[in-house]
Amino acid sequence: MENETLYVSEIFESAQGETSKAGLMTSFVRLSGCPFRCVWCDSAYTYERGEPWTIDNICAELTRMGWIHVCVTGGEPLAQDPIFSFLKTLVAKGFQVSLETSGGIPTKGVHEKVKIILDIKCPGSGVSDKNDWSNIDNLRTTDEIKFVVLDRADYEWTKQTIKKYSLFSKVDNVLISTVWDRLSPDELIAWMVKDKLPARLNLQIHKYIWDPEMRGI
Prior knowledge:
By secondary structure, the chain is an alpha/beta fold. It has one domain: TIM Barrel, CATH 3.20.20. The protein contains five helices and nine strands.
């Protein structure tokens, strides 16, 4: 199992920039490859196949870094079959693990102790037709749902989706992000306040700290 190979774009340590864990020092494993093409994708470099790493070698690097929190992201991590063995191994080694996934591939089979960050794609992404709605049935209250909003149309769609699937009753945190440099956060906040929408604003704080084009942050 630990000799299985994953293709990796980068492994780095930084502050978590998003989700309810924002600000926590975290080790990141960014896997390469993604079958989706969101029009606003900020990590298109992961489309190219990265370097092969065995699960054992990845875990050794994470142990060397020394952080208990590990975020597995992409690309689309679930596009690589060994991901399930990898997540299971991380949990067994005592890491607290979160998995950022596009929502277009079934999450069934992800270890129960892994926090799933389910990114439901809005129409502005260009791939909302790829959402796998069965993933909502697999959510645990400790998981999180994320919407990345491009404009007012995406925001209205997000509200409708939250209501349709009773998402506030599914998970503790429903996150709403703005597409970087396309929608102002204060505009989104104004909409949420007016509508009394009890979601969590989810800014990418790493982009406010460093150059948004920088990798390994």
